[in-house]
Design goal:
This protein is of the alpha/beta class. It has 8 helices and 7 strands, in the order αβαβαααβββαβααβ. InterPro entries: P-loop_NTPase (IPR027417).
Length: 250
């Protein structure tokens, strides 16, 4: 996992060097449930920032610069999760079939796709030294999104977005997917994914027992994974998910 993340971080930093200084590099990471999206995204973001920090030190040493770097010179990567665009429980309650909405929470139609597209659009605006905006995250304590939880600063010239539907080929999602510079798909055998999901649901408390965990896997997670694989834009990079005892894959 570490070596994969290191290689991907190098790919990201290299690509950043080819885009205008007032633009952002946008990376979307997708894959079926339990393929390791969140784990890989955290690692890549961390390693990308390590490489950027090393590069900044090198540039300053070579240039013997006496001025403080501007926000645009201090390039950094930031991670945003698609979970922030989950519909709220109040919105699920207002659904014509609330039980179905809760049972299928995590399906593409239980997300605010238009809100996600609007966010990605805003990332495509030219970056200025004063431009700052926010993104939501998901608060597991209240089981609802937390608006404005993530602050996107001018120096965040690399934005990594992870989630099931980051580059779906269906409207409204497709617009956001096409705006991404990189679309990474993590591949994993569905049977292995199902085993991981069941274990994760029990350990996390999402399911009260093994029976409910298996039901959730069959009725929600597996169909969601199949849906994204058959309705996604062409990835720019495919990555094989690996079992790494150092990490709990999410």
């Amino acid at each position: 996992m570490e070596s994969i993340a290191q290689d991907l971080a190098g790919r990201v930093v290299d690509r950043l060097s080819y885009i205008p200084s007032n633009s952002r590099l946008l990376v979307g990471i997708s894959g079926i449930p339990a393929s390791g999206k969140s784990t890989l995204a955290v690692l890549v973001t961390s390693k990308t920032n390590q490489l950027l920090a090393m590069d900044e030190v090198h540039r300053q040493a070579v240039a013997a610069s006496t001025h403080s770097p501007t926000p645009l010179e201090r390039s950094r990567a930031i991670l945003v999760g698609l979970d922030g665009w989950h519909l709220t429980r109040a919105q699920l309650d207002a659904h014509p079939d609330p039980k179905l909405a809760y049972d299928r929470r995590g399906s593409h139609w239980t997300f605010d796709g238009h809100g996600y597209v609007s966010f990605v659009r805003s990332l495509r605006e030219p970056v200025s030294a004063t431009s700052t905006f926010t993104a939501p995250s998901f608060d597991h304590a209240i089981k609802d999104p937390s608006p404005h939880a993530i602050k996107i600063l001018p120096e965040h010239r690399i934005v990594i977005i992870e989630g099931l539907y980051t580059f779906l080929s269906l409207p409204p999602w497709a617009e956001a997917g096409r705006l991404l510079d990189e679309r990474w798909l993590i591949e994993l055998d569905p049977t292995v994914a199902s085993n991981r999901i069941v274990k994760r649901h029990v350990v996390s408390g999402v399911a009260k027992d093994l029976e409910e965990a298996r039901w959730r896997s069959v009725e929600n997670d597996t169909p969601n994974g199949h849906f994204l694989l058959t309705n996604s834009l062409e990835p720019t990079c495919t990555i094989q998910s690996v079992d790494d005892p150092k990490y709990t894959l999410a």
